[in-house]
Amino acid sequence: MSAVEDPGVVRRDGRSGPFFDGAAEDRLMIRRCVPCDRWYAPDAGGCPACGAAELTWAEASGRATLVSWAVAHLPGGETAPLALVELAEGPWMYGRLDRVTAPREGLPLRARFVHPDEGESHPVFEEQD
Ligand SMILES: [Zn+2]
């Protein structure tokens, strides 16, 4: 997920294709190690537990809790709330918060998918009802 020219536009790189293909279909795809049944963040490259070099892609529930957050200041005066979340499956990943008025540690979140005209579909995390 590099965003050099315009931080508001999410673009894929070679390793993140299945993540964005899933996002286009409203599915949160993360990495899974089949031999030892562990889940990893979308950008994980291998399994430190069993040494497997290949992780498969698998669909996560989209449920998460908020670990920490910060407000990023973008060129042009825009701000973007960035969050570190813990997925229900265990891994931590970065994402954007949406419609969270009072962030706090442990806040229950769920992934919702944004489908912009320009750039890739991507998840944002909003408060669970
Ligand atoms: Zn493993």
From TrEMBL:
Residue ranges occupied by any ChsH2 rubredoxin-like zinc ribbon domain in the UniProt entry: 20-55
What sequence ranges are listed for the domain ChsH2 C-terminal OB-fold? 57-114
Q: Which InterPro entries match?
A: ChsH2_C (IPR002878), ChsH2_Znr (IPR022002), NA-bd_OB-fold (IPR012340), Thioester_dehydratase-like (IPR052513)
User: Pfam families of this UniProt entry?
Assistant: OB_ChsH2_C (PF01796), zf-ChsH2 (PF12172)
Database matches in SUPFAM superfamilies: Nucleic acid-binding proteins
Report what the protein is called: OB-fold domain-containing protein
Species name: Actinoallomurus vinaceus
